[in-house]
Fold this sequence. Notes:
Residues 45-132 form the Methyltransferase type domain. This is Class I SAM-dependent methyltransferase. Belongs to the methyltransferase superfamily. GO terms for molecular function: S-adenosylmethionine-dependent methyltransferase activity. The protein is of the alpha/beta class. It has one domain (27-250): 3-Layer(aba) Sandwich (Rossmann fold), CATH 3.40.50. It is 36% helix and 21% strand. The chain has a seven-stranded mixed beta sheet with strand order 3-2-1-4-5-7-6.
Amino acid sequence: MSMTTSSVASFGLYSDLYARFRPSYPEALYDWLLPLCPGRQRAWDCATGNGQTAVRLGESFARVDATDINFNQLSVAERHKQVYYRECPAEVTPFDDDCFDLICVSQALHWFHLPSFWPEALRVLKPGGIFAAWGYHHCEVSPEVDKACSVLWSIIEPFWSSRCQLLWDDFRGSGCPLPLLKAPSFTIHEEWTLERFLGFLNTTSASKLCKQALGESILDDACLRISRAWGHGGGTRHVALPLHLLVARKDTAPVFAGRY
């Protein structure tokens, strides 16, 4: 399985709200990534979650296979005529060998059992195909709001999975067996209201597990501090979320069993 039981449960809680409050990935990321692919026939969005990456890939690929271990997430994922959703783990799939031009993992690689996932990714990725994983952690609004947010972060800190450290470390130590590509930096830029921002903070995996353990009201005071710092009558503010990114290409030469 690609996640622990508690991790699966945390993403199953309030799946509709999780889908509602996730930020959108920057178009500049896709503009840079897609030309690297050897073709546009088929892509795999692994651990698709709310389906936002899969739907975007559906605008560029003839077929997108989008998988997730969590049925609740798939049940609220956005539909698209080029996207085919399937419930299955990242590490064991029904896909043919060498069938994908692109494999994407957004906000999820750190949850996988990587010693099992990498052989599966190598198996299904075409020679010359691209693997890309990305995710975000901290957000930046203003010095005042960021300071107020630190109270909330301190409360939920014990509830982050140790697996998140892989994401925070820019995927160093992932054991990726593919040759890495040098990637530019990308940042999510959003214009969010206070309501939208608080919705995002309250639907992180750590926030959900914290409230499940300590009560739904545990973050109320921290959210009030953020509201006061936000100002603007709760109106829109610019929110930036820098991305951590790993991009690699499968060699066009045959991969022998003992190579990795």
